[in-house]
Amino acid sequence: MAAEHLIADGVPQGCHLFPSGCGFPAPGAGIFDFTPLWKFQVFGIDFGIGKPIILLLIACAALVIFFVAAFRNAKVVPGRLQSVGEYGYLFVRDGIARDTMGKAGDAFVPLLFALFFLVWVVNFLGIVPFAQFAPTSRFAIPVAFAAIVYLLWVPVGMIKQGPGKFMKMMTMPPDVPKLMYVLLIPIEFVSNFLVRPFTHSVRLFANMFAGHLLIVSFSVAAWYLWSPNIIGIAGSIASLLVAIVLVLFEILIQALQAYVFALLTAVYINDALHAH
Amino acid sequence: MNSLNALLPLLAAEGGESEPNVLAIPLSELIIGLVAFFVVFGLLAKLALPGIRKALDERTAAIEGGISRAENAQAEADALKAQYQQALADARHEAAAIRAQAQADKTAILEEARREAAEAAAGIRARAEATIEAERATTVAALQRHVGDLAVQLAGKVVGEQLSDDERARATVDRFLADLEEQAAATGVAR
């Protein structure tokens, strides 16, 4: 893997403010584009396997290897690895599935478990040295995950409650004057069936995107300001410190967004399971 | 990279169009995302999660089993304790009954002994009285006989001898008394 594959296409070329006086090379959307390592076509669809996809696959492999190693020979009295994994499993089962859905949530624990940990590990790659890129900051990846959730809870609702009752529940809030339904039905429909999957994916994508952009911006600024004078040194060190703080902040955001993504999934499924 | 740098001004000249659209959804990435999720989900659901679910269920069962075992042991201990207490109460009751019986027996035995002693005493007194009565009767009869005999002898002696001489009369009386004593002694020996 050469440097052109490892570093995003749009990473600004370095220059220092002093003495050249060049303008700030602000990082743009280009920092989320990578030159593909190899390209191929399947059924006429162009595939370009670059760093984001490779990182995604590495995250998937690491996730599966870890949990299979931790859980395959799970004992009643857990070992160290199993204890760690168990903590994660119980967090998803009790903190996400059962908290939102009650006992009915147990059936959806594998889905929520896979979603939560896949999103978290993929997000986490954003601060792993040399990876330093979260595949979830490519919009297609959160869209894929949100699509799976959307294509699960809508049929589940249709089957569990019946299409008519389900649509009524999702578009007609109870205890509202009849006339208001003229307004409410379109609003609720758009909100629940069109906006919901969009916000579900954009929330994750935008957080990862913005976090990465911020860290890159301050890192670039640290380089840009570095100059042999007091303003340059102070500005550069300040920018670097901000970048480091942002990295620590990202750790929190990554976990939080994975939790929010899984929690919303549980809430949507719960909506589909129960009329309210 | 140098050639790219050379192109940069050209791209900039075309305007903002060179920036990629961040909201674009390349079909290939979408497909890879879907496949990646399903593979991860499938492998975890097949290989990892059944193990941990089984272990957790077993742990729950073990804990619940332990609790129910402890409850059984507690119930058993309680039953045993009640049994012992019952036995203890029974034993105390029995001891009290035995004591009461013994008390009653003692009273009865004492009463019996007292009664028997009284009867025996009464018997002894009756026999003694009878003996005394018989002896008295015998003595009285013997005395009467002797007194009669003595009176006859005395009368014979008084009649057969002259009582002029005081010396002689005195001797006669003395002889009589001596005879009387001899006779009394002989009677006592005879009895």
Question: Nutshell version of this structure?
Answer:
The complex is a heterodimer of chains A (276) and B (191). Chain A has 276 residues and is mainly alpha-helical. Chain A has one domain (34-273).
Key features of this structure:
heterodimer; A: 276 residues; mainly alpha; B: 191 residues; 3 helices; rod-shaped
Describe the 3D structure:
The complex is a heterodimer of chains A (276) and B (191). Chain A has helices spanning 3-6, 51-71, 80-101, 109-124, 140-161, 163-171, 181-225, 230-273, and strands at residues 38-42, 45-49. Chain A has 276 residues and is mainly alpha-helical. Chain A has one domain. In chain A, strands 1-2 form a two-stranded antiparallel sheet. Chain A is globular, with a radius of gyration of 23 Å. With 191 residues, chain B is mostly helical. Chain B is 90% helix and 0% strand. Chain A binds chain B through residues 3-4, 10, 13, 28-30, 32-33, 45-48, 52-53, 56-57, 60, 63-64, 67-68, 70-76, 78, 82, 85-86, 89-90, 109-111, 113-115, 118, 138-141, 143-145, 147-148, 209, and chain B through 1, 5, 19-34, 36-41, 43-45, 47-49, 51-52, 54-56, 58-59, 62.
What is the topological layout?
The complex is a heterodimer of chains A (276) and B (191).
Chain A: H1 3-6, E1 38-42, E2 45-49, H2 51-71, H3 80-101, H4 109-124, H5 140-161, H6 163-171, H7 181-225, H8 230-273
Antiparallel strand pairs in A: 1-2
Chain B: H1 2-13, H2 27-160, H3 166-190
Helix pairs in contact in B: 2-3
Task: Quickly count the helices of chain B.
Answer: 3
Q: Total strand count of chain B, please? A: 0
- As an assembly, this protein is heterodimer
The outline of chain A comes out as globular
**Average pLDDT reading of chain A:** 85
The total strand number of chain A stands at: 2
